[in-house]
Amino acid sequence: MRRRRALHLASGLLAGSLAGCTALGDALTGPRRYERDAPVDSRSVGPWPTLGHDARRSGYAPDVSGPPADASVSSVVDAGLYPEMQPVLAADTLYYGANRRDADGSSSRGPFSGFVATGFDGTERWTVAESKGLATPTVVGDAVFTTSAGNTRALDRRDGSLCWQYDVGYGSPGASPTVLDGTVYVTDGEVTALDARTGERRWVAEVNTASPQGTAATPDLVAATSGSGGEGGAYGIDPADGTLLWNAGAVGESYAPPVIGDGRVFVVTTDGTLHALDSADGSPVWRHELRRSAYERVTVAEEMVYVKGTNDRTLFALDTVDGTERWSVEFDAGAPRLVPTVAADRVYVAEGVDHGAVSVLDAATGDRLNRYDLPSAPTTGPVVGDGFAVVGTGRHSSEGRLVVLS
Fold this sequence. Notes:
Number of helices: 1
Strand content: over 45%
CATH class: Mainly Beta
Largest sheet: 6 strands, mixed
Strand order of the largest sheet: 1-9-8-7-6-3
Structural class: mainly beta
Shape: globular
């Protein structure tokens, strides 16, 4: 793990100057670089500020209306090569990672990959270059927390300027920094807690196992999953000091971040099993076998957990208490590694391999309510706001887009 971290840190950031772009990391002399406190005190500006909407990774926005019944594609935003990172939404701005390179590694727009802030009309507000792997950002107040392979940063969301940086992080979309009660939780061989305002390290929980793949948090628990080379598990950590509360290594390899809800920690493992663990001690409560292997997190809302296997056409809705199947829906075409979203009493599911769509289901019954056509196949699950939804498109294409339905 230490060797992996050293390799991450040895990878350089993109050099050069781009219009409106900030390149970071050249002047580091230690694990932490501090410029100023991150502006975390201002009111959260939602409606979808992090991976899975909240620190629990629930995928549920209870007070959001979603797009109207007659919505259509209103705008598209360039996201580059295979956009698989769920964007986050704060006020009127999208924050996401972009790899604007052609499939052969070249780029028609200049050698850029990194984090982007853009309006719904596609106007870029700022970019931060990063050549390494990227995780989904998290917005708290006027700060954006970004993680890549070997770095976690707090940026001012208004202009992308650096507040602080710490040399820890894992660069995959599911390893989004979890921010709760003034603390940032990140993974990089261990689970590390940083002060959200200053970037100072509070503790490190050395789970000493396969690479952690993501975190979720409540005031009483930080949950983490791990997976690499067929090994892995799930872990419960005390947010106060990093003490390991429980180890559920028996669940096996997971490449999806955990989800916390209804007294459970939900873990999807690569063998196609959904595990519901007791959040207090990590003991198994129930399990559900999926039809396919699984690499993505579940969605939890109103005592229901929504889950599908990778490349599977069937979405299952299960009771969070005992795993009883409430309903299931089979789609005409599956969509690989896409997570459903619940907003109010609706479930939004991206589907399709060649031609895409977003289907809308009744959350309680699974009844089909609506369907929005997409210009190409989806690459992310939808994120939802009042009057609109945003979904990544463009699988098997170097011209990926974030599509706004409104």
